[in-house]
Structure formats: C-alpha cells, structure tokens
Specification:
The complex is a heterodimer of chains A (336) and B (228).
Chain A lengths: L2 E14 L2 E14 L3 E6 L5 H7 L8 E6 L2 E2 L5 H8 L2 E5 L10 H11 L4 H14 L15 H13 L5 E5 L7 H18 L2 E6 L2 H7 L2 E6 L2 E7 H6 L4 H7 L4 H4 L5 E8 L5 H11 L4 E10 L2 E10 L3 H13 L3 E4 L6
Parallel strand pairs in A: 3-8, 3-9, 6-7, 7-8
Antiparallel strand pairs in A: 1-2, 1-4, 4-5, 9-10, 11-13, 11-14, 12-13
Chain B lengths: L3 H39 L9 H23 L2 H7 L1 H8 L5 H25 L3 H9 L4 H12 L1 H22 L6 H12 L3 H29 L5
Classes of the chains: A alpha/beta (336), B mainly alpha (228).
C-alpha cells in the first residue's frame, strides 16, 4: 500500500447569503500510486468541490489532504505552487489560453517552471506529437474541435511531468466517440508514465471504461468506495445503485413480479441457469435486459430478470442464483 | 477668415491637443493600469490568496482603492482642474498651457482608466485563471501571462475609449487656458464670433476621434485570436 493521495475527514462548507451548503461532509479515502481512481456522483454531489480540494483550488473548511506525504494545508503559498506542478488538472471546458497558439499553451507550464524557451518549445512539440496534434502547433484554440482542445489540455498538463492528473468531467462536453479516444489517451498516459489519474464523472460508463477504483459521492457524503468490479457486482448503497442502473430503469419498470439484477463474469455461461430455473419451478423468467461490459479489461455480464409474481418462488429462485455465486440484487424500487 | 496664420494656428492647436491627449493617456495608464489590476485582483471575486490574513489585507486594499476611485470619478473635470492647480504648479511650474493641462487630465483619467481595466480583466474566463493556478502559476505570472494577454482585446478597446474621452476633456480644458483646439474654439468661436474657426476646430476634433477610434478597433480586432 502506497497511497499518493490521502484525504482525511475533509469538510467543505460554503456560506451563501446567510445559509450554508455542506459540499463535502467528513470525507476520507486513499488513492494508490499509479491507480486510475474514479469519483462518481450525480450533479451537485460535490465532486468538483472534492477534486478542487485535492490541489487546494478550494480551501477545505477542515480536514487534511496529503499528497505524496505533504499535508497541503500546511504549506506556504510558494511551497503549494511548487507542489501543484506535480498535480496536473484538466477541465470540462478545457480552459486553454484563447489568445495563445496551441504551442504557446503547451509551453505555458514550462514557462512557469522557468524552462528556457527553445527547450520548452522542443518539449512542447514532442508532447503535441504524443497527443497526435503536431500539425496544429501554430493554430489557436478557437480553430480546434472539442476533442482536439482536450488533447491540447492534456499535452499542456503533461509538460510539467506531473505525478497526478485530476480530470474534472474531462469528457462531459464531448461526443461518445471522442470520449472514447480521450479516455484511451488517459489510459495510455497512466500506463506509459505511471501517472496517477483521478477521474471525476457523473457517468458510470466512464468509470467502467478506465477506472480501477471508484468512490461514490452522494450529497457531500462518501457513500462507498472500492474496486469498480465490486461496485458493479454488489453495490452497497442506494446512491451507487442509482448510478449503475441509469439507462436500465425503464426496462425494469414493468408489470408485477420481482426484478433482480444479476451480475456474472463474462466467461461463465449463464444461459443454462435460467433454463434450469424455469424447468425446476415450472414458472416463467423474463430477461428484461442483458449486457456485457468491459470493466477495465475483463468482461462483466449484467442481466435484469423478472421473476414470477409468486413471492415464495421468487425468493427461492434468488437463493438458487446466490448459491451459484452470482451477484444478485433485488430491485424493489424499479418494479411497479 | 481662414488665412495662413489662422491655418498655422489650427495646426499648432491640433498638435497641442494630440500632445495633451496622448501624454495624459500614457500617464493615465501608468497609474490607472496598476490600479485596475489591483482592483480586479483584490476584489472578492478576484484572485483570492489562501491565507485568511492575506484575504483580510486584500479586502482592505480593495475598499480603499474603490473609495478613492469613486470619489475621484465624481468630481467634475473643470472643478478638478482648478482644485489641483497647486499640484500642477509644483510639477510643471505654471498652471496654464498644454503641458500644465496634462496634470489634471492625468488625474481625471487614471481612476476612469482603472475602472475600465478592472472590468476588462473581469471578463477573463475564471476557468483559465484556475488552470494557471493549478499549474503552480503565482500572482504575477497570472497577471502578466493570463489576465493581460487574455483581456488584451478588451483592454485595447478601453484605450480607444480613454483616448476619446481624454481628448474631450482636453478641449474642455481650453476654457481655462489649457491650450489646444478647445482653446482656439473658445477664443475665436465664442468670444470673437468667428463661427468658421469654431466649425473647423469641431471638424478637426471629430476627425481626430474617428482616426483614434478606427486605429484602436482595427488593432484590437487584429489581435483577437478567439475567432476561428
Ligand atoms: N463557490 C461556491 N459557493 C457556494 N456554493 C458552492 C460553491 N461551489 C459549489 N457549491 C455548492 O456545493 C455543492 C456541490 O457542488 P459541486 O460543484 O462540487 O458539485 P458537482 O458534483 O461537481 O456537480 P456537477 O456534476 O454539476 O458539476 C452544490 O450544492 C453547489 O451549489
Ligand atoms: Mg462539477
């Protein structure tokens, strides 16, 4: 265990005209070195607030943020500026300098670090090659597409050789295709440079695509955290369940009966089990939804079944499925 | 009538007016630009430091500057001119003529310029400032490489407006012996009923403002990279 980021009892309260908003309530978690760590939550859950506390763009009301052994709130301004060079950040709206060329944008962090101009330019060109934009060096951000702008932002953030990369909804303004390519680029960066990446998102698909670990935020509270696989197979909290089931709730909101969500590793064959259930109990089992997802490399199956409207039978079926070591959750809220 | 002497006088008047306007704008920015930057930075929605103590200091600096600028801006220019005569005398040695007028012009222009600079800088995208902060940029770096660069189009438009306004003030200064075209317009057009002279000075003033305006707008458009 070698955590590069440790968050301890972090609280953040905003004062807004007399009333106060608790955007982070006693949040604690660790992020391992080299991990791709997701922070997921609905809009307003406090994700941006939390990630901005990780480089002190937002000052925590209380609690501690320890990055690479240093407690950020105890640093002087100068020390903090220095540590920030190790913590890159990319944003939903890219935040490039609009009046500067692509090359100058990538040179900017090097300029801050006092790197000589010629050297900075060479390094910037190299980084633009890495993100596939060397032909756009002389262009201005306004002339680029969203995906290209995010690539420039990524090249820029890599310029200072950060140890950590914070991404606040970095793909939320992009179409699915571009999202995939940006996430692919982030994974490459994680693998080639060993940079720890923190991914803030409201989309489970993004977490499933690249994250290894994930924390679920719900109204300023850390609802649960663990591996993406565990969250996918057995979400422990309502907040996590809501996020996982987006897109499937319409399917399961059907007639009577008990709906269950069954997860299984893609290799195991699931077909006979349903057939067996039907044969054994002589009752119908409906497949409302079935999908196989790629969760950082391994195939994970997901199925929503509608069990018979006979409570006793349904319960015994669930026990049977559980006996086969499948993840089974009853979706009470989604049947009506 | 418009004889040779008269034309020569108008040429000299134009030169004096331009001299006063450009010098006062230059000095106005010398004081107004740092004031405007300070206003933007120290404002609550500005670039807040992390330490509580510094935040307090910022709040005080903002309040003081804000009050000074507001007071200075609410004094009518003609009254300000008379008010600062001792200062003018101390600096220039006399209180009439073009060189002397630069002093009150500068004093009137600086707070007005400060406000324009402040509002130009406020237009800079917060996200870009935060991106710079996240890279470890300090305050000076942010001012120099982010605020002034990203706001340059708006700042240039501000310069254009400042030039036009100061030109107008300088003409007003003519009423109390300030020299330049305003002086000529009042002496010949008003006291001697030479309407033609007054008309010519007005035309020259209009043309000057037009030229300054066009140059300013052209430059700011040329320097703007936000359009594809
Ligand atoms: N500067 C601020 N002043 C006051 N309240 C704030 C401020 N920033 C955030 N909040 C409040 O804190 C809560 C969490 O906001 P935050 O932006 O962290 O949510 P989020 O999870 O990032 O949402 P989204 O997905 O919409 O970006 C919200 O209720 C928000 O209104
Ligand atoms: Mg957010």
């Amino acid at each position: 265990m070698d955590p590069i980021i440790q968050v301890k009892h972090l609280c953040k309260t905003f004062q807004v005209k007399g009333s106060q908003v608790d955007a982070a309530k006693d949040i604690s978690f660790d992020i391992e070195r080299g991990d791709i760590f997701g922070i997921i939550g609905l809009s307003g859950a406090g994700k941006s607030t939390l990630v901005r506390c990780l480089n002190l763009l937002e000052m925590p009301t209380s609690g501690e943020v320890i990055v690479d052994g240093k407690s950020l709130t105890e640093l002087s301004d100068a020390e903090l500026r220095f540590v920030r060079r190790d913590i890159g950040m990319i944003f939903q709206h890219f935040n490039l300098l609009m009046q500067k060329s692509v090359l100058d944008n990538v040179c900017f962090p090097l300029k801050i670090a006092g790197v000589k101009k010629q050297e900075a330019r060479e390094r910037a060109m190299e980084l633009l090659r890495t993100v596939g934009l060397e032909d756009k060096a002389g262009a201005y951000p306004a002339q680029l597409s969203g995906g290209q702008k995010q690539r420039v932002a990524i090249a820029r953030v890599l310029a200072s050789n950060p140890k950590i990369l914070l991404c606040d909804e970095a793909t939320s303004a992009l179409d699915p295709q571009t999202t995939k390519s940006i996430l692919g680029l982030l994974r490459t960066i994680n693998e080639t440079y060993g940079i720890t990446i923190v991914v803030i998102t409201h989309e489970m698909a993004v977490v499933q695509e690249i994250c290894h670990h994930v924390a679920v935020l719900d109204e300023g509270v850390l609802a649960e955290s663990g591996t993406v696989q565990d969250l996918f197979r057995a979400p422990k909290t309502e907040a996590a369940r809501r996020l996982i089931l987006t897109g499937t709730e319409q399917l399961s909101r059907m007639r009577g009966g008990t709906a269950v969500r069954v997860t299984f590793s893609g290799q195991s064959s699931f077909e006979p089990m349903i057939a067996n259930l039907i044969l054994e109990y002589k009752m119908p089992v409906n497949i409302l939804f079935a999908d196989t997802k790629n969760i950082n490399g391994s195939a994970e199956g997901e199925m929503i079944l509608q069990l018979p409207d006979v409570k006793d039978t349904a319960e015994r079926m669930i026990q049977d499925l559980r006996a086969k070591r499948l993840g089974v959750e009853v979706l009470e809220h989604y049947v009506g | 009538m418009l004889d040779k002497d008269m034309i020569w006088m108008l040429v000299e008047g134009t030169r004096d007016t331009l001299y006063m306007t450009l010098m006062a704008t230059l000095f106005g920015y010398l004081f107004g630009l740092p004031m405007g930057i300070t206003l933007m930075v120290t404002a609550k929605e500005g670039i807040q430091p992390t330490s509580r103590v510094k935040q307090k200091v910022y709040a005080i600096i903002y309040k003081v500057l804000d009050v000074i600028v507001n007071i200075a801006r609410s004094i009518p220019f003609l009254i300000l001119m008379i008010l600062v005569i001792p200062v003018t005398k101390a600096i220039v040695g006399k209180s009439y003529g073009s060189a002397a007028t630069i002093v009150p012009l500068t004093i009137a222009a600086a707070p007005f310029i400060a406000r324009m600079v402040e509002s130009s800088l406020q237009e800079v995208d917060r996200g870009v400032i935060e991106a710079a902060q996240s890279m470890g940029a300090g305050l000076w770096r942010i001012i120099w490489s982010v605020l002034l660069v990203e706001a340059r189009t708006s700042l240039l438009i501000g310069v254009t407006i400042a030039l036009g306004t100061i030109l107008g003030y300088s003409a007003m200064a003519g009423a109390v012996g300030g020299g330049g075209l305003g002086d000529i317009a009042i002496r010949y057009g008003y006291y001697r009923y030479q309407t033609d002279v007054m008309l010519v000075t007005i035309v020259v003033l209009v043309v000057l403002v037009q030229i300054l305006q066009s140059i300013g707008m052209m430059l700011s458009r040329k320097l703007d990279r936000r359009r594809a």
